Each structure stands twice: as C-alpha cells, then as structure tokens.
Amino acid sequence: MKIVLRVLINAAALWAAASFVPGIHAGGIGSILALALVFGLVNAFVRPFLKLVSCPIILLTLGLFTLVVNALMLMLAAWLGRGLGIEFTVDGFVPAFLGALIISVVSTLLSWILISKSDG
Q1: Alpha carbon 75 to chain centroid distance?
Q2: CA distance 61 to 70
Q3: Contact, 98 vs 75, CB < 8 A?
C-alpha cells in the first residue's frame, strides 16, 4: 500500500510540475501515472549511483548540486517514458530544474501529510 501511495504522490508532484512549468508537457492522467512509476524506478536505481559519483561536487556546493541531480533524473525519466510511449516531455534543462524544484516540494509536503511516521 505504501508503494502505491508513493506512486500517487509522485503523480501529483509531476502533475503540479506539468501544470506550472512552461516547457513540461504531460498527456492525460494515465501518462502522469505511468511516468510516476518510471520516475520512481529511476530515482530508486539511478539516482543513488549518480549521487555517489557526484558526491564531491555535492559537498563543495553544500548540497545545492542535488538540485541538478534531481533535474537530470526528471529528464531521464521523461526520455525513458517517451521511449515507452508515455506522453510526457521536458523541453530542456531549465524547465527540468524548475520542475524538479516543484516535484521536490510537492512530494515532500504530501509525504509529510499522507505518510505517518509509524509507517516509516
């Protein structure tokens, strides 16, 4: 149940990014739900490796480079989704960066609200 809730939280965050950032375009709700699943998989498998490789840069920038990593993860998820036939596009790095900021804020707030600390 917790995994389904996380996918739905990611979907809501992706919808918010697509709604508020020019340069991020999504199809219908099915596309957003499918990309939320792809985005979750990318964050689970690729992001830890990328953060490990970029650890010195993250330390030098006091964590701000993590925002760049998040933007790259959004661009990768959109590219993989496009390969799978999912209607979700990101037009460049700046929309990806702004979208990653919105996704981070929305998913953090929804996680605080919807996932109790006992579920961990």
Answers
A1: 9
A2: 15
A3: no
Per-residue pLDDT tens digits for 22-33: 999 998 999 999
Residue 97 is part of which domain span?
A: 2-114
User: How many structural domains are present in the chain?
Assistant: 1
| 34 assigned to some structural domain | yes
Residue 15 lies in a domain: yes
Secondary element (H or E) of residue 12: helix 2-20
Which amino acid would we find at residue 74? Answer: L
Between these two residues, 119 and 20, which has the higher pLDDT value?
Answer: 20
Nearest alpha-carbon partner for 17 in 84, 82, 77, 80: 77
CA-nearest of 40, 71, 66 to 53 is 66
Q: What is the pTM of this model?
A: 0.89
Whether 119 is in a domain gets the answer: no
Domain for residue 13, yes or no?
Answer: yes
